[in-house]
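Quick one: structure for this chain?
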Amino acid sequence: MHDAVLNLIVLRSADLALAAKFYGKLGINFTRERHGAGPEHLTCRLGSLVLEIYPRTATMVTAGVRLGFQVDSLDAAVAALEEVGADLIAAPAESPWGRRAIVADLDGHRIELTEMRAVHEPASP
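Got it. Here's what it folds into:
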């Protein structure tokens, strides 16, 4: 048996345009697509992972989902997301995983942002 590899995450949103604007602040650009008679939704590829956002219905919610993204500048990412309505859940602070913050997107999904650590090359002799 092979190890499993995560390749798909599907979220639900009350407003696809606002969701695209929110995640666009993280540099995530979606395209719109529809499969057969299904609903129009947003989709993008992040490496080998496909992230899709479908319209939310009364019986299909994903507000309990928590996603994590690494960003170049934590302060800039938090500020940009707050501009489009993100709620700051945990302010930027040091953690065992690096400097991080948690925001909630416009549909209540918790988004953990971790600042990418600079990789330092060893000094030349």
